Amino acid sequence: MYRLLKQDKKAKRGELHTVHGVIQTPVFMNVGTAAAIKGAVSTEDLNAIGTQVELSNTYHLHVRPGDDVVYKMGGLHKFMVWDKPILTDSGGFQVFSLAGLRKIKEEGVYFNSHIDGRKIFMGPEQSMQIQSHLASTIAMAFDECPSSVAERKYVEDSVARTTRWLSRCKEEMARLNSLPDTINPRQMLFGINQGAIFEDIRIDHAKEIAGLDLDGYAIGGLAVGESHEEMYRILDATVPHLPVDKPTYLMGVGTPENILEGVDRGVDFFDCVYPTRNGRHGHVYTNHGKLNLFNAKYELDPRPLEEGCQCPACRRYSRAYIRHLLKAKEMLGMRLCVLHNLYFYNTMMAEIRDAIDAERYQEYKREKIARMRAGE
């Protein structure tokens, strides 16, 4: 159940009550594709840096180790030793990202595994069955993510099929949640709005899926090649047609500035690989912009990554030392950068929630963006 606690203009402050605990929104979900955060980050670390929700990938876990293995181990929470909420995506994004390895039909999608080439079929029912095996807190509906440059006719046909798939997902989820051997019979289902960068298609689709009374609604198919301005335009057009009393999730977004702009448009949930991927390459986020630790100017820099930061890296280590670790290809360097970046994101979300509570979100957003753009 979602409770809308406050609104500051369009910015929403809410709580999503789940079987695995209450999620305070807006929230950034920390991405652990294969049931682990890349960069040697443990679930104990996630608790220490203020993580509320972990996100794992249905397709990748189906391929390896196999959702049947996770089911036999008692579900994803027991498998990875994490007792807070988990969201699993549906595998639908792989329909987009593995374009050279798939065929889309009405019944579902035929894949070739990116690991060993074996044939895989996934449709709405299969996606729900896999996610039920994983026993995540929130399951995502199976959809197709059309390219941002796809022609209108293709997008129209794709969105119509995604809507048909969503009804099948809802029906299958209800069936699975009623079975006696289901690990999490209170698994939630979020539907996904698509439509590329066509405002009218997005709006019509939002209205249609809003009528299905799902647990939440996501906006997919953005941050896949279109400009930031196009993304904000689509959010401005689409979000008002999704239920304000349900969580709204902007999939795969993004930079700190993208998140601040998304919150301003009524988005509750975010996820992105940026903080972990960039951290593994020595790029760290701070309130004064992004630092590239490979730059020579940090060779003798005794300061933490960010003054005053309470993350595990900043409390003990210098920029000079972390730079050395990265250049020496020591895993600890990557780990410390990832921990810092996730802590930065999670802390920013707490600041956002506080700003909405205090009805000063606009001021907070302006100040935060101005500082990050100003640099050191």
Automatic annotation (TrEMBL):
One Pfam family in the UniProt entry: TGT
Region (RNA binding): 252-258, 276-280
GO BP field: tRNA queuosine(34) biosynthetic process
Active-site residues from the entry: 89, 271
Residues of the tRNA-guanine(15) transglycosylase-like domain: 9-372
Keywords: Glycosyltransferase, Metal-binding, Queuosine biosynthesis, Transferase, tRNA processing, Zinc
Cofactor(s) listed: Zn(2+)
Highest taxon, organism lineage: Bacteria
Subunit structure: Homodimer. Within each dimer, one monomer is responsible for RNA recognition and catalysis, while the other monomer binds to the replacement base PreQ1.
Family, per entry: Belongs to the queuine tRNA-ribosyltransferase family.
Official protein name in the record: Queuine tRNA-ribosyltransferase
Organism: Diplocloster agilis
Annotated gene: tgt
